[in-house]
Amino acid sequence: LLLNSLGSIQNASGTGFGFDLGLQYRVDNDTTFGLVAQDPYTVYTYQNSSTTIIPATLRWGVRHKVEKLHGTGAFDLEWSQDLGFRPRLGVEWLPLEVMAIRGGAWVGDLTSTGAGIQPSLNLTCGVGVIIPLQSGLVPGQAWVDQIAIDYSLIPDPQQSGSLLHQLAVTGKFM
Asked: Considering the entire predicted model, what is its pTM?
């Protein structure tokens, strides 16, 4: 969102502050429920003294892992003032212990449907690779120290018909 905002303000730079709040409840080793408030207060201030306040997003979801299929399914409901109410569904399959293939779908704003307006169906896909930094597994857990590289291709929620390429690099160190 910051890059989109900066794109509309020529030759400007800014600083921002934001945070997320979340809770997880693990029913068992395979099922987890979660609730998150993303950007309950996030604001960017630019050199020209203008500010951008990012609308808060509330999300509730559930994830279930099916060990026999080496897969995980997830469903969540998301609401934000600017993007409305959107359900999401996703699956992840691990053909190898260090590789994940993902697919999903989300439906555009269900609250803005009216006469003749149909919500859009948006498909997503991605792949992830885990690079272990140790020479073994901890029994019953994934790699303890690792770097993950994830790529995803998703529809741009702000600009209809456009696609976003996302690349994330994360580390887990215990």
From this structure: 0.70
